[in-house]
Amino acid sequence: MNGMVQIVLFFVVILLITKPLGSFMAKVFAGERTFLHPVFGWIERLTYKLLGISPEEDMKWTTYAIALVAFSATGMLLSYALLRLQGFLPLNPQHLGDKQMPAHLAFNTAMSFTTNTDWQNYSPEVTISYFSNMVSLAIHNWMSAATGMAVAIAVVRGFSRKSAAGIGNFWADTVRATIYILLPVCLVGALILVWQGVPQNFLPYTQAHTLEGATQMIAQGPVASQEIIKVFGTNGGGFFNANSAHPFENPTALTNFLQIVLIFAIGAGLTYTFGKMVGNVRQGWAIFAAMSVLFLGGAIACNLSEQAGTPALVKAGVMTDATSGQPGGNMEGKEVRFGIGGSTLFATVTTDASCGAVNSMHDSYTPLGGLVPLFNILTGEVIFGGVGAGLYGILMFAVLAVFIAGLMVGRTPEYLGKKIQKFEVQMAMLAMLVLAADVLVFTAVGSVGKAPKEGHYATLNTTRASAYGGTDTPYGDLANNVNNSGPHGFSEIFYQFASQTGNNGSAFAGITANTPIYNTAGGIAMYVGRFLMIIPLLAMAGSLARKKAVPVSSGTFATDNPTFTWLLVGIVLIVGALTYFPALALGPIVEHYQMQSGVSK
User: Fold this and answer.
1) How far apart are CA 118 and CA 123, in angstroms?
2) CA angle, residues 566, 397, 589, in degrees to nearest 5
3) Distance CA 112, CA 452 (A)
4) What is the bridge-based pairing of β-strands 414-415 and 206-209?
5) What is the DSSP string of 361-426?
């Protein structure tokens, strides 16, 4: 009941903030004056002047895409250089340098934060300086979030405009998203986190002496300012290795609830923004309803699975029922401060929203409990999704939904007064197939591939192989850093590439991927997952913007009612099942049956 109450309370809060936030964002991206313009308007005007930007310039989709890619590539190269040079830069009291950040890891990290993935193949406390956190990486927490919103708005303009050549101005969209949406919330939110006990300083790590006489280094730093944009921008990269399970990142029940609300806030609000921009808010609520059904189903399933515990616990005589004195269920890998309800809700939200922040270890979930966050990512992160990514992802499925509906009734499909023709369907399918191929091909290679053992990695692999009583792990040299065998080990590899391609960033844990080959492959997967999805959707938006509106007729399929909502939910589930079921069967599904039968491997 505790978990169910948290889910309901959370959903009510999201429902309450969707309309006001969505209406505000619609005004911001339309260039209209808001209550924040007297405070921040001068920053917007100064930015345009310094960069020579004309916000009124309307860009074709090709120009918009080139600006996006160039902006992201420049930021990525800057971050790579700064990470490699961190030993020579200021705000580095722990004297961390290029030894902690070799070339392959710097490539993976720079690509990760550029693509809004924030996958971390390192322990931040012993790898990244304060300067690297604040400049090399956090700059992308703002850039990638703003560009995600910009792309979503550009795609919406494709549906809302009639016979237009352009889809907006990338620079104006990005600047407005940063100044009027991200900045004010992060200023207030960071102060709330400091009030709740999140550190914000530049002190060296503190050496403490424990009661047993041992010494312990307590990491700290400018955490609050990094934490707030981590969740509000759905970035997910933690200041500490334990991420939001660390008491310095997430100290109280209030901060835990605030974080998951902020993770969903922009994604939910953009559905109402969509309705406002296309001139029919019911269209936005239909999208919101489809996302809500998928979210609630996953959250409830994950909570029930973890609360049920495992047969091994029951056999060992462990109480798995919740009582007034203990939570019951499967508490492995979960913070006692948050329990099963707070942990499973966080896991569902962060994988629905392509955030990737975690307050528990998904590797320790039951097979079906772990399947939920994995499947959330495999949907294409369309269940509210990341900032912007969720909206343009669900619109991709909406195009497929009306196309299938059109085939059923034998007429050309329409959506929001635009005929959905061959080109639009091709672009939607291209984006979808690219993501699926990226996940499945890399997972296959990671499961069976071979790579040479050299130096430090050879030593690590030999040590780990001994744990299996042999000379190799069950998955071959490439995956020697998988700490589990059988279907769970496969799930770790599958989850890694799904998370990287889906630009989520959370991990199953249990897999040590900080090797040259994994860092390189992961960087490529993240690039493909971000830009080879965005570019086809921008092309689709450009094509739609040029089309004239089609008058509504008796044969027009309504897309603002429950029928369309359920069709959209069905399309998301069916496409996900058809694409990924064989891989899911090899991982969490077969592991579930092994767990029930008592087979360990």
Assistant:
1) 13
2) 75
3) 25
4) unpaired
5) -GGGS-HHHHHHHHHHHHTTS-SS-STTHHHHHHHHHHHHHHHHHHHHHTS--EETTEE--HHHHH
Write down the pLDDT at residue 167. Answer: 95
Burial group, residue 177, by CB count within 10 angstroms (0-12, 13-18, 19+)? buried
* SS3 readout for 79-133: HHHHHHCHHHCCCCCCCCCCCCCCHHHHHHHHHHHHCCCCCCCCCHHHCCCHHHH
* Under 8 Å between Cβ of 309 and 326: no
**Sequence ranges of the domains in the chain:** 2-203+219-597
Provide the terminal-to-terminal Cα distance of the chain, rounded to the nearest Å. 33
3 state SS of 238: coil
E strand intervals along 406-488: 414-415, 418-419
pTM over 0.85: yes
Average pLDDT over residues 465-470: 33
pLDDT in tens, 541-597: 999 999 988 887 777 788 899 999 999 999 999 988 889 999 999 999 998 888 888
Q: Which two tokens stand for residue 470?
A: 């042999």
CA 379 – CA 577 distance, rounded (Å): 9
> What's the one-letter identity of residue 20?
P
Q: Are 91 and 81 in contact (CB under 8 A)?
A: no
- Kindly list the distances between the CA atom of residue 482 and the CA atoms of 243, 378, 503, in Å, as whole numbers in the listed order: 21, 21, 21
User: Would you state the structure tokens that stand for residue 250, as one six-digit string?
Assistant: 């997430």
Two structure tokens written together for 244 = 């939001």
C-alpha separations of 437 from 92, 171, 360, 434 in Å: 41, 32, 29, 5
AA identity, residue 224: A
Nearest partner of 452 among 423, 476, 425, judged by Cα: 476
